[in-house]
Design a protein that fits this description.
The chain is of the alpha+beta class and 155 residues long. It has four helices and five strands. Strands 1-2-3-4-5 form a five-stranded mixed sheet, sandwiched between helices. Strand 3 and strand 4 form a beta hairpin. Helix 1 crosses helix 2. The longest helix is centred in the middle third of the chain and has 14 residues. The chain is globular. The protein starts with 17 loop residues before the first strand and ends in a 22-residue tail after the last helix. The mean pLDDT is 85.
């Protein structure tokens, strides 16, 4: 049985609605600051620290100019809120050092380089998570989530 870990601190979902440590990357979806209908898929690979940011249809982020963009910074900050700085640092295989408290500070410790990656897998995972929000409230078991431990919340 796998324990579900609660967030390190509560976070607001409007700017970064989806963040995860999965597939060897810190990855997620970040809302555009200028267009309400646009989102960016951002990621940092664990170990080699390759980063990328693009729209969900693979148009590169204009803020990638030799360093992580503001979307990657927002993603890293939200990951630290969700998982805690130590867990994110361990996952990315970077020394957080003393006093590192934010995702932006953690990104500054990476020996990072830009490497284009496809947004499709991460965006698809995000859309799948959104689909659960559209389901009516129920205590019935969802077949694809049957492996989550019961919390007894409905009792």
């Amino acid at each position: 049985m796998v324990a579900v870990v609660p967030p390190a601190r509560p976070r607001k979902l409007a700017k970064v609605p989806f963040v995860e440590l999965a597939d060897g990357r810190l990855q997620g979806v970040v809302s555009s600051g200028s267009d309400i209908e646009r989102v960016y898929v951002s990621s940092v690979t664990a170990g080699d620290h390759a980063y990328h940011c693009s729209t969900n249809n693979n148009r590169p982020c204009g803020g990638l100019r030799g360093a992580p963009c503001k979307h990657l910074e927002s993603l890293a900050d939200e990951a630290v809120l969700q998982y805690g700085v130590d867990r994110v640092a361990r996952y990315l295989r970077v020394d957080a050092g003393d006093g590192t408290q934010t995702g932006v500070e953690l990104l500054s410790r990476l020996d990072a380089r830009h490497e284009p990656t496809s947004a499709a897998v991460v965006f698809s995972r995000f859309l799948r998570h959104l689909a659960y929000l559209e389901l009516p409230a129920s205590t019935a078991v969802l077949p694809e989530l049957h492996w989550f431990p019961s919390t007894g919340a409905g009792r």
